[in-house]
Amino acid sequence: MSAALTAAGLPEEQVRHRARHGTAAVFPELARYGSEMLGAAPAAAAHDPHDLLENCRIVPPVFMPDRLKKLIELAREPLYTDVDLTTRIGGLTSKLPLYVSAFGSTQVASHDLGEAAGRQAGALGIPMVIGENIVPVNGYRASSDLQASPLLGRIAAYTAAADDTHGGIAVQQSTEDADAEVWNLLYSDPVFEPLLATGRLAFELKVGQGAKPGLGGLTVLDRDVARRLDDQYATDEVFGGDSERVLRLSSPGTFTAEILRRQVMLMRNNFPRVKVWVKLHPGRDVAEAARVAWAAGADSVTVDGAEGGTAWAPTGFLGHVGLPLGEALLRIGPTGDCLLASGRMWEGTRAAKALAIGARAVGLGRAALLAVEEDGEAGLRRLVESIALELRMLISAVGKYQVDALSAEDLLIPAGARSPRVS
């Protein structure tokens, strides 16, 4: 029988695994929760025919009029070191077209890693997004007044290392965060006055994420913790009634064009001193959703590609649900508005391609966490410096010297892929 199944193309061991474990087999192995970064398809990106960012090429021209202009400006031949990477990211001034993507309350993004990322991102002068569920899980402040909560700890680490001009903090809010009134807490806390006074605080409305488009937050809890939260959160016995762990689930929220429009307008009215960001999952109507958010007054829209996220997600979602980042960017196209992109970003060529298609900046999620885990004092800095060097070389190679000068003309896009919209 097993030979017949194998011959028919069925993965025998995966079928047997499901036969043994039932609903628990829909998720990664439970032992991996909190100890590994999940949320992306494990297959090599280069072998994914749908990953446009891996399958297109950067193509320099022979004639470079912008290089001639730069030569005249400098009175010498320009070098890649002359490329200017400073940019505006969602109303924030950044030294580089990079930001640290949202990571929230999962154990792998522990207190120490979050603060290490904050310190290094602040020193680099790039924005950092504080992810969802930190306050519902850990509280706004720790029980001891002498110790900051994870949320405030990350923000304090960032602001202590940053200057008053570059970068900034974006605080994400999901449906659960809204119930905990996270934005209201921050906006009224005197701790955030320096960020508000310098225009370096943003609030990001989370509509979805790349790891599990269409689903809300999923977290594994010990059974005794789940009992205490039973009246607050829904749970599901996917790991079996004899397991010490249960799945906590939440609603992703319900959105229509009108609901999203009103949410953005409400954010602008209620929090006039913050920048308004919106994060979208890579849905098939992502271009329409982005246009609705911008028209309502959003300072930026983030698109989390199907490759993105470090979240606990059903394994079936990781390689089969949602648009790959490159396709999502193509559908939106260059608009002149601030479009942020995240999903398997870790080196300069992929970042440059996303910027050429229409992104204003790219987010480092899993890569940032790996970097600070490797070296809590300098890992993220070294990673970012390597990406910045590659970006300067690549932008110079196509004869341009401003990061926002990259465009789709600098790419060879595979035949059959739709062309970016012209702004």
Helical content class = 25-40%
Question: pLDDT average, as an integer?
Answer: 85
Q: What proportion strand?
A: 5-15%
Shape: globular
The oligomeric state is: single chain
Distance between the termini: 58 Å
Structural class: alpha/beta
Could you list the spans in which at least 5 consecutive residues all have pLDDT below 50? 1-8, 41-46, 142-146
Report the strand count: 15
Overall radius of gyration: 22 Å
Biggest sheet strand line-up: 4-5-6-7-11-12-13-14
Biggest β-sheet, characterized?
Answer: 8 strands, parallel, barrel
What secondary-structure arrangement, pairings included, does this model have?
Layout lengths: L1 H6 L4 H10 L30 H4 L1 E2 L6 H10 L12 E3 L2 E3 L3 E6 L7 H14 L3 E3 L3 H5 L11 H12 L7 E5 L1 H5 L2 H6 L5 H5 L3 E6 L11 E5 H6 L5 E3 L8 E5 L7 H14 L4 E6 L5 H11 L3 E5 L10 H6 L4 H8 L6 E4 L5 H10 L3 E4 L1 H9 L4 H19 L13 E2 L11
Parallel strand pairs: 4-5, 4-14, 5-6, 6-7, 7-11, 11-12, 12-13, 13-14
Antiparallel strand pairs: 1-15, 2-3, 8-10, 9-10
Helix pairs in contact: 5-7, 5-17, 5-18, 12-13, 13-15, 16-18, 17-18
Overview features:
single chain, about 425 residues, alpha/beta, 8-stranded parallel beta barrel, 3-stranded antiparallel beta sheet, 18 helices, 15 strands, globular
